[in-house]
Amino acid sequence: MSSPLVQPVILAGGSGTRLWPLSTTEFPKQFRPLLGKRSTFQDTLSRVTSSALYKAPITITNQTHAQLAQEQQAEIGVAGILIAETARRDSAAAVALAALAAQRDDPQALVLTLAADHVIPDAEEFRRTVQAGCAAAASGKIVVFGLTPAEPKTCYGYIQPGTALDESGKVSDVNSFVEKPDLETALGYLQSGYLWNSGNFLFRADVMIEAFHKFSPEIISAVQDSFENATELPKGIFNLDAERFEKTPADSIDYAIIERIDNCAVVKGDFIWSDVGSWDAVWEILPKDAEQNSHVGQAHFIESQGCFIHSEGRPTVAVGLNDIIVVSTDDAVLVLPKDKTQQVKKVAQLLGS
Amino acid sequence: MSSPLVQPVILAGGSGTRLWPLSTTEFPKQFRPLLGKRSTFQDTLSRVTSSALYKAPITITNQTHAQLAQEQQAEIGVAGILIAETARRDSAAAVALAALAAQRDDPQALVLTLAADHVIPDAEEFRRTVQAGCAAAASGKIVVFGLTPAEPKTCYGYIQPGTALDESGKVSDVNSFVEKPDLETALGYLQSGYLWNSGNFLFRADVMIEAFHKFSPEIISAVQDSFENATELPKGIFNLDAERFEKTPADSIDYAIIERIDNCAVVKGDFIWSDVGSWDAVWEILPKDAEQNSHVGQAHFIESQGCFIHSEGRPTVAVGLNDIIVVSTDDAVLVLPKDKTQQVKKVAQLLGS
Question: Given phi > 0 = left and psi -120 to 50 = alpha, else beta, which region is A36?
């Protein structure tokens, strides 16, 4: 069975500092070689360009990073247009843009929105999961991706699947979305078959636009207005009309749309996935040595266990350490225990990054 | 009472890697800004140039670093000749050289040999201690400097003082020198009034030369031969004759001379002193914040206690750490607990530094 072509839209407008000093507002993590040679933005592009399933990607980022994103596309031989946001307006505006941009080609285009900073090592299983969700999306559902939980994480939201929508059992209706739980609740979720919510979506452009008109009309109206008045400069980069985009209310796609609609479906993914939202998550996703150490760059572990080193330029040596993270970039060196990584955002603010 | 002028001789030929990555065989610690802006070599020079007590300093270093030493002298406005060793021959050869070089000016010159990598913050008290030792040295004693122990260190040798030689009680005969003790023995030493042996000496040039002729004639003979055939190139740097210096037996001054003679005296110093032989010693000698953290360079301590940061170029941030040392240079980053610093030499060898 051949599937319709899917329009991938990469959402690359984030500016997190939870991976400081690697990630800064000037040079956010999605454009950095977080796990090795390529950026997660480039890895995300590669995931949706190697197959007959996808159209050329569209990337939505902010004005500051549009040129960088274009260069990083070119580096890996990908050609795709970029839409540059002129202000930070959260994920609802970006998903609305994705739908509007895809609709220019085909009103009923299937749109796959993907965060540029997620890590999915198994591109093939990811592709099969997207394919599994296409029928539900084509039928008018807004499809979310639910991951089989590897452990009771308290840093992710969860999805409770409902009635199965296909014979494979991979696609179901959504009974409910639930916020980040405490550990006990998370343990209960695992036993009840809940899934991690990866925050990526597959939908028909017209379905999403209609949902916006119904639940968040101010957002779609301002976004459409700024998009129709965008200027292409330089080639391939469409700058939204700043004054009009400025008027867009800032909201998350979850609050603006997903939690208000009743036509959601979930497709279950059995691939390893991480939003690498903190340094301990980076440690976790990487291959480890016999002592449970993982690293990027030149690293040496001596009598050390459960450590992570990210080292740019120069070698980093850990001696006699347990569960310690060391991040060394050209800008700064950060050392902290693995269970303190939630403090990094605060540290970055403190140091003015 | 005016004292005779003292000839300071700085022994700057060491190449320790116990402070790796700051100290390497190519760029050893005495030429590095270990405690801040200036090198300990420069601090040592400053300690013996600001007073009417001292002649212009002589520096003994190895050929590789003679030019660097000359530049570092010039930086702080010190003019003094340099003697460049063409091979590593340990401290006995260096002290013999010091005596021979001082003797050219005055056969009975008082010579003060000083390690270039020791830290003595109180230059004034140091000067008073040297002055207190001059009479004993002028009378033909070889004077060692004994420090009142701040704690029962097991990384230093100790001196047992004997009969007092002056009314102040600062200068005594030496009953015995003892090797690095275990902790229990060290505690006993403290109760019995033993002193730390700082390994620096004050003596008459002719007395030391005579002692060499008696106890280590091969050393003084080869050193004298190579010194008399030295070439001055470039100006101010005297390169020993390589072939002749090569023949000098390598030995420490303690084994070659000090432990064999019976005319030693000890002058008691009440100043803070450290041989900064490891990173925990560097932490110890520096001023600390309320949480017992100390640092050189741009450092930030957040919820951290008892830590040390040496940071070159870029800031280093410690979050939630206890008793951890972080050393960040242009060449490498090293992270280890304070009680593992004895492993650094091994680490440096492992990494080929």
Answer: left
- Whether residue A333 and residue B315 make contact (CB cut-off 8 A), yes or no, is yes
Question: Chain B contact for A276, CB < 8 A?
Answer: no
Residues 6+ apart with CB under 8 A from B178: B157, B158, B159, B160, B189, B194
Whether the pLDDT of residue B1 is over 50: the answer is: no
Burial of A262 (0-12, 13-18, 19+ CB in 10 A): exposed
Residues of B in contact with A335 (CB under 8 A): 316-319, 321, 324, 326, 335
pLDDT at A148 over 70: yes
Size of interface A-B (CB pairs under 8 A): 104
**A349 in contact with B, Cβ within 8 Å:** no
Do B208 and B263 form a contact (C-beta atoms < 8 A)? no
pLDDT band at A234 (very low <50, low <70, confident <90, very high): confident
pLDDT digits (tens, 9 = 90+) for A248-264: 999 999 999 999 999 99
- Domain-by-domain residue ranges, chain A? 6-269, 279-350
Cβ contact B336–A326 (<8 Å): no
Whether B312 and chain A come into contact, CB under 8 Å, resolves to no
Residue written as tokens 């990337």?
A: A59
Helices then strands, counting H and E runs in chain B, come out as: 11, 15
Regarding an ipTM greater than 0.90, the answer is: no
Give the CA-trace dihedral at A101, A102, A103, A105, to 10 degrees: 110
| B237 contacts chain A (CB < 8 A) | no
CATH class of A6-269: alpha beta
CB B119 within 8 A of CB B43: yes
Residue B144 Cα to chain centre, angstroms: 13
Asked if residues A19 and A331 have their Cβ atoms less than 8 Å apart, the reply is: no
pLDDT digits 0-9 by tens, A62-105: 999 999 999 999 999 999 999 999 999 999 999 999 999 999 99
The answer to whether A297 contacts chain B (CB < 8 Å) is: no
pLDDT surpassing 60 at residue B135: yes
pLDDT confidence of A50, banded at 50, 70, 90?
low
Any B CB within 8 A of A338 CB: no
Structural contact between residues B152 and B18, judged by C-beta atoms closer than 8 angstroms: no
Q: How far apart are CA B353 and CA B349, in angstroms?
A: 6
Is the pLDDT at A314 greater than 90, yes or no?
A: yes
Task: Please state the pTM of the whole predicted model.
Answer: 0.89
Place of tokens 């609740």: A185
Dihedral class, residue B50 (left if φ above 0, else alpha if ψ from -120 to 50, else beta):
alpha
Q: Is the pLDDT of residue A2 over 60?
A: no
State the pairing for strand pair A333-337/B6-11. Answer: unpaired
Given this model, what pLDDT does residue B133 score? Answer: 96
Mean pLDDT value of segment B37-55: 90
User: Closest approach of chain B CAs to the CA of A34, in angstroms?
Assistant: 19
